[in-house]
Specification:
Two copies of one chain form a homodimer.
Chain A (H helix, E strand, L loop, with lengths): L4 E3 L5 H12 L5 E3 L11 H4 L9 E4 L2 E4 L1 H11 L10 H32 L8 H21 L14 H14 L2 H6 L4 H10 L3 H4 L4 H4 L3
Parallel strand pairs in A: 1-2
Antiparallel strand pairs in A: 1-3, 3-4
Chain lengths: 217, 217
């Protein structure tokens, strides 16, 4: 079967999580950029991949998948390499819960509520401080829930092996940690802080740092 | 290990999906009602089970789980009985995508956008027709996506075996089909219509019809 293709921009947190999974499993792949600034994700070509016009989408042969968690599970099951899903049912369930908490409660306040207005408000325009203030308690609640779901985090979220939950969380925390709110809030979650410090040096993390964070064009 | 306990009201679509999974696998269990009208889901006792104050939560021994898809996967893996997760990777991925589409795009417009205002608006008060009109295109988009993700639906969403995706979808479609909007929209999705007709007679469906639909107190 031909090598798989991932559609999405490197700066998208969900696209980055999938790239990291492909790197962790050493899966040779193609990355097709979808430019959100040019609204390419809402163009018919991309809507044929993802009917809701979101990112990423993943194609393996003629099998097209959208929605990040199903993509991640497919990659873990379809390709050889180290397993990114815990064999132990309790760790596996906690990893699944963490991914669900990220998607349902954590992603939106941390990325769209705080990181985006702090980072991308045009110079001279006012930052939407009200939206940020509303997002802060929601971000805290999600972080506390994730901290409480971590199982003997040594060094990863649910144990000694990196899992899909780690990959889904890294890009979001990476953005969030660079905001004044993130810098202030994160130290209240010592297990997550220790995790974030250690996982920074993971090759799949280092190889996927978005330009907006690395400063390198 | 003691028999598991499910916390939630029978009329909650997500709670009903979990009850159906327990019935499909013939798992002896206890059901503890959580009365949303009395705000019991926001009381400390329930927040200890589910920090976001939603339903259901599921306890097996001292292992507490919240978020429905992780609960469903845990039940399928932890207990004997027929498998509710397809062994084939493509069917399994489509089932996971359908569950993700339900949670991310389908549940809110069909249940909260249409079913709830049509069913529970107090007599004499105006129905929020604007909210319903806004929910209709979103419901259609989600239904089209689910219809497109169905794999040889004969008779279930991804094949000959019932899966967790069927269980997650039944309670939502059951409510939606009883609204004027649902009755008008659903016939445009022939595969879903055929599925809904057939699955109505499934014992786990019949045994869990909520009072609001059966009319039986």
């Amino acid at each position: 079967m031909s090598k798989p293709t991932l559609y999405g921009p490197r700066y998208s947190t969900y696209t980055r999580a999938v790239i990291m999974a492909l790197l962790e499993k050493r899966v040779d792949h193609s990355l097709v950029h979808v430019d959100m600034d040019k609204k390419e994700h809402k163009a018919p070509e991309h809507l044929a991949r993802h009917p809701f016009g979101l990112l990423p989408a993943f194609q393996h042969g003629d099998f097209m998948i959208y929605e990040t968690v199903p993509i991640l599970n497919y990659i873990d099951d379809a390709f050889p390499g180290s397993r990114l899903t815990p064999a132990d049912i309790h760790r596996r369930t906690r990893a699944a819960q963490i991914m669900s908490v990220i998607n349902s409660y954590g992603y939106r306040p941390m990325v769209w509520g705080i990181f985006v207005p702090r980072t991308f408000t045009e110079p001279g325009k006012p930052v939407d401080e009200k939206a940020i203030a509303e997002a802060v308690p929601k971000a805290k609640q999600a972080l506390q829930a994730i901290e409480d779901l971590m199982v003997n985090p040594d060094p990863f979220l649910v144990g000694r092996q990196i899992s899909l939950a780690d990959l889904l969380l890294v890009p979001i925390i990476h953005y969030f940690a660079g905001t004044p709110e993130g810098a202030k809030i994160l130290p209240h979650y010592p297990k997550l802080m220790a995790w974030h410090t250690i996982i920074q040096s993971r090759p799949s993390v280092l190889e996927t740092v978005p330009k907006v964070l690395s400063g390198v064009e």
